[in-house]
């Protein structure tokens, strides 16, 4: 219990630091959203309209402490400001519209890649020294391939040349979103090639990492003792070896889940997929500071929550963290 309490206090402090940095960085940068909008129309804006825009974007001439208090108040009420790129749509609406696409694609494929990779890593380590070692060079090569290059090659072969998959987009243009068979089928069909690309690009890293940890753990005395006691092979492999070897992978998986909220920018840009990563790319391209600020806040909170979940999982997997006073 003390372990979890310390972690909660630590992550509460980290969350406060992330929120504070998210407040300070845009205000330390030159310019502001209103100046960017005025520059786009070459300054042909009525001064009263400029003042109204400054008020709409939450800009104030008050001291920094007053602005910080107002920012925290707006944050707790869910007000992250207005987007420049999608003006006058609020930032929270833009992010909430892109989030389901990212979680549905990047989140699901991250979990699939982790499950396949760790499971295969356990089996390859348990059968080390056999014909299964022949997979290692191929996995190393697959892990070394740059993701964007793999994505471009798969798009060229299976989407452009063979025409088996759509080239881009999340669904067929013109379809009305809804819980109907036609729309769901279109969404799954458009997500299949990006999903295959993500799994191929990620699972090799999980396999290699898990195999290396398993080989190390299999040399420990407690594993040798379990085998000498005549315990079933499956029990030794899963409860003694894999349970301890998976601990570093849990940390990496938690970080991966945290970055899911940020989307995979390369994935979504290459496939023109309307997720958080693609929206963040548009925000950077259009210098949309409110949208970037809101997205960085979402990503920071997601990473913090993912790490907290990983620490909770550690309590159940690793008895050393369950220390009584």
Automatic annotation (TrEMBL):
Residues 99-314 form the ABC transmembrane type-1 domain. Keywords: Membrane, Transmembrane, Transmembrane helix, Transport. GO terms for cellular component: plasma membrane. One of its GO terms (biological process) is transmembrane transport. It is found in: Cell membrane; Membrane. PROSITE patterns: ABC_TM1. The chain crosses the membrane at residues 9-29, 101-126, 147-167, 187-208, 245-266, 295-317. It is a multi-pass membrane protein. PANTHER family: OLIGOPEPTIDE TRANSPORT SYSTEM PERMEASE PROTEIN. Belongs to the binding-protein-dependent transport system permease family. This is ABC transporter permease. It comes from Phytoactinopolyspora alkaliphila.
């Amino acid at each position: 219990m003390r372990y979890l309490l310390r972690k909660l206090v630590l992550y509460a402090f980290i969350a406060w630091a992330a929120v504070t940095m998210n407040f300070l960085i845009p205000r330390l940068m030159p310019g502001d959203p209103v100046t960017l909008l005025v520059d786009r129309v070459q300054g042909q804006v009525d001064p009263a309209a400029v003042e109204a825009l400054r008020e709409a974007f939450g800009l104030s001439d008050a001291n920094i402490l007053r602005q910080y208090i107002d920012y925290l108040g707006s944050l707790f009420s869910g007000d992250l400001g207005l987007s420049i790129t999608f003006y006058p749509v609020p930032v929270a609406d833009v992010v909430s519209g892109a989030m389901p696409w990212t979680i549905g694609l990047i989140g699901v494929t991250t979990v699939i890649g982790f499950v396949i990779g760790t499971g295969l890593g356990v089996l390859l380590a348990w059968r080390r020294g056999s014909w299964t070692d022949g997979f290692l060079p191929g996995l190393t090569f697959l892990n070394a391939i740059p993701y964007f290059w793999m994505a471009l090659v798969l798009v060229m072969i299976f989407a452009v040349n063979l025409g088996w998959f759509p080239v881009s987009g999340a669904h067929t243009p013109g379809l009305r979103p809804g819980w109907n068979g036609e729309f769901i089928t279109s969404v799954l069909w458009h997500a299949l090639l990006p999903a295959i690309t993500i799994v191929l690009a990620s699972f090799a890293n999980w396999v290699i990492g898990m195999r290396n940890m398993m080989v190390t753990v299999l040399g420990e005395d407690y594993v040798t003792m379990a085998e000498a006691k005549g315990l079933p092979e499956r029990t030794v492999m899963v409860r003694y070896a894999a349970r301890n070897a998976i601990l570093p992978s849990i940390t990496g998986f938690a970080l991966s889940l945290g970055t899911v909220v940020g989307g995979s920018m390369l994935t979504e840009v290459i496939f023109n997929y309307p997720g958080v990563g693609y929206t963040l790319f548009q925000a950077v391209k259009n210098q949309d500071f409110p949208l970037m600020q809101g997205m960085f806040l979402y990503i920071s909170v997601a990473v913090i929550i993912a790490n907290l979940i990983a620490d909770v999982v550690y309590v159940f997997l690793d008895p050393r963290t369950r220390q009584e006073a």
